[in-house]
Specification:
Layout (H helix, E strand, L loop, with lengths): L1 H20 L10 H10 L1 H12 L43 H36 L3 H4 L2
């Protein structure tokens, strides 16, 4: 009896974390707050209903590899699309280009950070060279 109670508590916590972690457009059939209330006040039924009716499994974080035929090319492995010139990576309709733009923004920010570090290093080297050439340069630097 203790094991069943513990299992119900664990499933309830997992379901609550899953509901809260899902974005609002992904939750199906009811608003998120209603799912949370169902899971809290009617744990066994609420958890079962959430995983059967509320969770959108197509946007789940766990992605299974695509099943391929017998023919394999050199550029594609058995665990995903090929990376050759003939492969076209298209985002799924359920996931907007938000992830792509977010990644591009992160790369741009990283490039700006690298450029700023390189500029700071170049300035430091120029200041050291200026000090070597002119011993009174300390007074002239800001």
């Amino acid at each position: 009896m203790f094991v069943l109670s513990l299992l119900l508590i664990v499933l309830t916590i997992i379901a609550l974390i899953d509901v809260v972690g899902q974005p609002e457009p992904v939750v199906r059939n009811l608003p998120k707050i209603v799912w949370v209330l169902l899971i809290v006040f009617i744990p066994l039924i609420g958890v079962a209903l959430w995983f059967l009716l509320g969770k959108d499994w197509s946007t789940s974080r766990i992605k299974l590899p695509e099943r391929r035929g017998r023919k394999r090319s050199r550029t594609s492995g058995s665990w995903g699309p090929g990376r050759g010139p003939s492969s076209t990576a298209t985002p799924s309709p359920s996931q907007p280009d938000r992830a792509v733009s977010s990644t591009e923004e992160q790369l741009a920010a990283l490039e700006r950070e690298i450029q700023a570090a390189e500029d700071a290093e170049r300035i430091r080297k120029l200041e050291l060279e200026m000090k070597r050439n002119d011993p009174d340069a300390d007074d002239k630097l800001p």
